[in-house]
Amino acid sequence: MEGGEYNAAEDVVMLSDDVLTSVANATLVLIDGGEREKLAVLFQFPQFLEHCPDETVNTMIPEICRDAIKWVPKLQMASAEALFYAVGLRLPEAVAKRTVVASLRILQTVASAEVFDAWGEILSMVLPQIQKED
């Protein structure tokens, strides 16, 4: 392939049915998959949230929050876009706190203004859900 040519087939990732139909298997892809597989799972996040909301919130979101700090900017952006679908919901306290911590960690280290803005938005949306302690 010449330098400027684009091969769309290289950007296509086919996720197996057991990944597309299982939050646990999709979460394993987020843990051990390659960059393109992780992107594919993150793009499917709204469907997981719609069909298996409790499992998605309690399994997938904590994993995204744990690993997003280590991901490349493209994955950090995709993870923020995925979380936009969830942070408008009332999250369990532990998941909300984990999301706040992840947001703050990414905001402290990220170089991309776009990723900074996206995670700043996540933080602003989930922070009001945290119980204030005296």
Description:
The protein has 8 helices and no strands. The N terminus is likely disordered.
- Estimated structural class: mainly alpha
How would you state the average pLDDT, rounded?
86
Task: Please indicate the percent range of residues in DSSP E strands (runs of 2 or more).
Answer: under 5%
Query: What percentage of residues falls in helices of 4 or more residues?
Result: 55-70%
State the end-to-end CA separation: 62 Å
Q: pLDDT under 50 segments (min length 5)?
A: 1-9
Supply the key terms:
mainly alpha; 0% strand
In short:
With 134 residues, this protein is mainly α. The chain has helices at 17-20, 23-32, 35-43, 45-51, 53-67, 73-84, 93-109, 113-126.
